[in-house]
Amino acid sequence: MDGDGFPLRGLRVLEIGHFVAAPFATRLLADLGADVIKIEPLTGDPVRQWGEQVDGKSIWWSLHGRNKRSLACNLKDPKAIELILRLVRECDAVVENFRPGQLVRLGIGPDVLRRERPDLIIAHISGFGQTGPYRDRAAFGVIGEAIGGLRHLTNQAPGRTDLPPVRVGVSIGDSLAGLYAAFGLVSALWQRDRTAGDAKPRTIDVALTESVLSLMEGMLPEYGRLGKVRQPTGGGIPTAAPTNAYPSADGAYVLIAANSEPLFAKLMGLIGRPDLIGVARFSGNQQRVQNSVELDELIGQWSRRHDSETLIELLTGEDIPNSRVYTAADIAHDPQYRERGMILDVHDEAFDGPILHPGVVPRFGDEPNAIRWPGPAIGAHNEEILRGLLSMDDQEIFVLREKGVIS
């Protein structure tokens, strides 16, 4: 692929992170061509032990670590810290997600790093941010989801169940924070590099909690102005109707979104209730939202008479937005995803064959971005980085390995 497909080619980022948030941020950058050097402990990132395993190897890691170079070293050893400082001289940015203050305790705090590279961009990702009364509290993505307001809303409407609010299903709090960190880092690069001679350091402070909160739409303004606490609505949307998941005759659910006047009229005609078009309680979105329970019941009575494929054909024929609820199998075989290069068979030597990966987002140009390599083995690029980037010789590398500084 030519350089147009990799807009971040030439950017070098040092990742001193673990688990999900920082590695997700750097994966986004690496997918767009950045040279990401991931610092791993000698035992590897803990995520290598997550998810389904084949012969003791994580399938998820193939995606999680893709397009990055792995340098495995023991950060508790002063010699490893020296390596980090030498690497920083060659990097544009550092992304980390330790607890606030941990880099300082390791001897590679921001001031130390910037003595090596004065204009270094540092993106900190933590549970609550680098300041504030909660800064030192432990947090994972699920805590960010809870305090950010998302976990309260991922539930059925009040009174429908006594089960606890459900998780979204993926580490959404971590991934959101990683996304904001990547966006912030690129923004800082733009600010730094558009002005000749600008050698100012820039710091990005991303909190899991704040990343989730920023997506909560009108939840906070509505409370501040009206004192209204938004409540969960199950499969529906509190601001638009009809929009929900409706049951089919074969036990599946089909999403139907007909929350505009033309779409509502089409849907009522399709379900055999044209008499409801123009009725006061369904005229306009606000009225439909207020009567959404009745409306969902009417649509559900119709949807239960058809299997899911028939429902999709009928709705698509009327140009009404719809879809069944996709599983991983549906996604893997979907022709739209396949045509656009969003389902990729990536050869992974760790599994002696292909592993399915999602493609790169966003897309640049006409062709999908290539996956340069899957998640590497622990320390797979030690020699390449130490020799090629730091110009170390055989003896230096031998000594570091003998002393247990590197793998």
From TrEMBL:
The keyword Ribonucleoprotein does not apply. One of its GO terms (molecular function) is CoA-transferase activity. Gene3D superfamilies: Crotonobetainyl-coa:carnitine coa-transferase, domain 1 (3.40.50.10540), formyl-coa transferase, domain 3 (3.30.1540.10). The keyword Oxidoreductase does not apply. SUPFAM superfamilies: CoA-transferase family III (CaiB/BaiF) (SSF89796). Transmembrane segments: none annotated. This is Crotonobetainyl-CoA:carnitine CoA-transferase CaiB-like acyl-CoA transferase. Keywords: Transferase.
